[in-house]
Design brief:
The chain is of the alpha/beta class and 327 residues long. 41% of the residues lie in helices and 20% in strands. It is built from 13 helices and twelve strands. The chain starts with a helix and ends with a helix.
Length: 327
Amino acid sequence: MKHLAFATGVFVSAAGLAAAETPELVVYTYDSFVSEWGPGPQVETAFEAVCGCDLKFVAAGDGAALLSRLRLEGARTEADIVLGLDTNLTAAARETGLFAEHSVSADYSLPVRWEDTLFAPYDWGYFAFVHQSDFEAPKSLKALAESDAKILIQDPRSSTPGLGLLMWVKAAYGAEAPAIWAGLADNIVTVTKGWSEAYGLFLEGEADMVLSYTTSPAYHMIAEDDHGKTAAAFEEGHYLQVEVAGKLAASDQPELADQFLQFMVSDAFQSVIPTTNWMYPAVTPDAGLPEGFESLVTPAKALLFSAEEATRIRDEALEEWRAALSQ
């Protein structure tokens, strides 16, 4: 019996040692990315098959909440990678000094030139208001503000779509933005913390329109065979979002982090994006885009502030939004 006990102890110790030798890569991202229908589960399986590691996704709210969490944690963060910022946040993220340069090489399919040395893109899309196809949607942000349509939006302090809407209004209307927000205030049913909450409320019939993406109807068409939802095409154009990931300078797995970022632009990762994150992939997959994407709304004009411009005007735009909603 003593011999058996000793042998069992050796076995447990060896198993524990093997587990300890398996490197862990921690990726902070947004809630919908790690949901059972999001990219996370497939990405985790595919990357672990080639990395010999344990990939751990940590959901940290919506996109804009990621930066807030990092600022609180500082260099003590457990994250090796943050995935889910966008170009409205990258300049502010750069100013934290928490990120290290990446070594990603890719032939991007983005509508803009990409040269950022700290952040690598993994998908992109256009913000839009999604509605039922039989709803007569306004044709512009201004017309929406003048209408009786009920809308759901996200908080710009915690959500990248919410912040994107601020930039969209500002890019389209400039000094007239406060007047647009004054008009939109009456349309807003509620402001949610993140995208998932707002879209869920829309599906429950709580509003006529929800702030989302031109690509969102693809989910309903492909996953549900539901062609009853569409995105409103606005005359002033649509604001572009490019989502990115970056490596933390304090990571204790820098080589593994680099491996993940390069994997992120591979076909194994990019081919998952269209039908899980329901966005355009940063690198067109070998098989192309899924059937149904060709029928999506294509904005007549793309609106986008540079990362530096977005940081410069963010506080002003946020105050205009807050002032309008407090009336």
